[in-house]
Amino acid sequence: MSNLRPESMERITTPALAEAFIEEQVAAVRQQVGDKKVLLALSGGVDSSVVAALLIKAIGKQLVCVHVNHGLMRKNESESVIKTFREGLDANLIYVDATDHFLGLLAGVSDPESKRKIIGKEFITVFAEEARKLEGISFLAQGTIYPDILESIKAAEGKKAVKSHHNVGGLPEDLQFELVEPLKLLFKDEVRVVGEALGLPHAMVYRQPFPGPGLGVRCLGAITRDRLHALREADAILREEFEICGLSEKVWQYFIAVPDIKSVGVKDESRYEGWPAIIRAVNTKDAMSATIEEIPYEILHKITYRITHEVEGINRVLLDLTPKPIGTIEWE
Ligand code: XMP
């Protein structure tokens, strides 16, 4: 398959077109892989999940999925990956809880790009370590999609990236596998249609984008376990409330960021110092620019009440009204 999408390629917009694509890719993957084993870093994001489901359909247990929990996942995210793939699809799935390792390396590191580099580099190291333990792997599957290909073409032309995004590229020399990239000519909306046709849960397929460094770039400055915990809990409340009121289906990306500053508050008639939780909810087509979702005040009040009453360490809730540009979507 060439790296450029032929102009004649029809957009996959219906279950029938998705079925035809799946059938074609199942045959192509079987032909490429034969009886060899394929390794996949399964993050739980839409792209890697759809690749996993597609490859399980094509080659079953010849696919070995590795899910690395870097300790910066959202609440219950790793659990849901395990449930969907191990229990639901009988996947050959290795779960690595590397939380202590990552948080140890990140302790005291406050510069955003340094945090990203540590997370990206360590992710590869941990994944490579797991890969070395396995016997007879010949291929590496990746959830590369067409915008990634276009991005690398741009990068090759020397255009500067605003933030360094990480994926599983850059494995050490002794682990150079042949790549399996069945989604590399698809746009995101097409990947979702294929994912639903493969029977993946709607919430997984329509999951909002989540950055590779995870909550690491939302726990602003140097990450501490207590602030990370508060962020995870507050973010879970935001997501729960957005689901209840239907905003989760409408807003492109929404999350909480927690900066490393404390303000004075009062709780049970005593001084209560805590961090603010910042709500960010944006809409965009391509993440290059973004506008703000106007969240109704009654929903904001409910979220504020819940976060300040249920999350230890948070004593204020703030709303970020900044479009991109000038703010980027993430705070780091
Ligand atoms: P920014 O903050 O650059 O975000 O406006 C644009 C989109 O990219 C996501 N993002 C990342 N994704 N690794 C990723 O995989 C990263 O390091 C990273 N930084 C930002 C962000 O969530 C938004 O969807």
Question: What this model shows, in words?
Answer:
- The protein has 332 residues and is of the alpha/beta class.
- Helices cover 41% and strands 17% of the residues.
- A five-stranded parallel beta sheet has the order 3-2-1-4-5, sandwiched between helices. Strands 6, 7, 8, 9 and 10 form a five-stranded mixed beta sheet that branches.
- α3 (77-88) links the parallel β2 and β3 (92-97).
- α1 crosses α2, α1 (15-33) packs across α7 (188-197) and α2 crosses α7.
- The longest helix has 22 residues, at 112-133.
- It is globular and about 70 Å long.
- Xanthosine-5'-monophosphate (XMP) is lined by residues 116, 162-163, 165-166, 209, 211-213, 253, 287, 324, 328-330.
Question: Could you name the key traits of this structure?
Answer:
10 helices; five-stranded mixed sheet; alpha/beta; globular; 332 residues; binds xanthosine-5'-monophosphate
